[in-house]
Amino acid sequence: MRERFWELPLADLTRPEWEALCDGCGKCCLNKIEYEDTGEVAFTRVACRLLDGHTCACSSYPNRHDYVPDCVVLTSEKLAEIDWWLPSTCAYRLRAKGKPLYDWHHLICGDRQAVHRAGASVQGWTVSELTVTEDDWDEYIIEDL
């Protein structure tokens, strides 16, 4: 990968560079509630069935669409349409807006565990969608991401 590739425009990244930009927080794997009457979106701590709540990684990333057909494939083109869906700390969202990555991002500090120590991931506080019915997601709304 190119040196400091994360500072390049997102559309210029290779596929491996794009994948490496992910900060590993797991926040994009949280289920969201979109209120049709207002268009407001609320994040919940109910996570996708494939999210490993300890590592904050997908337990079946290459095959995730076999289990979760509507899992979003994030691209630079799609990012503009769905940036509201990503947390404010997301590396893709930050770079799309021309902002730098946080100091805890592994590409900056060299440590993939720093995101967890900084409290910027979902490590240890999610519940699986396999244990909560969709009707009860509103009981798991979180205020801030």
From TrEMBL:
<protein>
    <submittedName>
        <fullName>YcgN family cysteine cluster protein</fullName>
    </submittedName>
</protein>
<dbReference type="Pfam" id="PF03692">
    <property type="entry name" value="CxxCxxCC"/>
</dbReference>
<dbReference type="InterPro" id="IPR008228">
    <property type="entry name" value="UCP006173"/>
</dbReference>
<dbReference type="InterPro" id="IPR005358">
    <property type="entry name" value="Puta_zinc/iron-chelating_dom"/>
</dbReference>
